[in-house]
Amino acid sequence: MKICISSEGNNLDSNVDARFGRCKFFIFADTDNMKIDAVENPNTEAMGGVGIKSAQLAVDVGAKAIVTGNVGPNAFEVLSKAGVKVFTNAQGKTVKEAIGDYKNSKLTEKTQ
User: Is CATH 3.90.700.10 the classification given to domain 2-110?
Assistant: First the structure.
């Protein structure tokens, strides 16, 4: 399954970014084979609507879950409507640790 992790850097050793919409990178990881793609977030400097734009990017790439520190209500609404699950409070971990926590069901799903 493809998941999207908000990241401060472009690799598995990078820290999870506490922000979703304005994170520096999105790490798209296939949890079955651990193939990753790092995508620089084009929305970091946008004036407004960054949560919605970032959420749509994740949906367009095919993410089925988001792992991040926090996600705003507008981004959450876009993700929810697309059937993407959202897991927050992953800041303080590396991307690799966050993926492991996701795979081992150690993250709490945000439901509203």
Answer: no
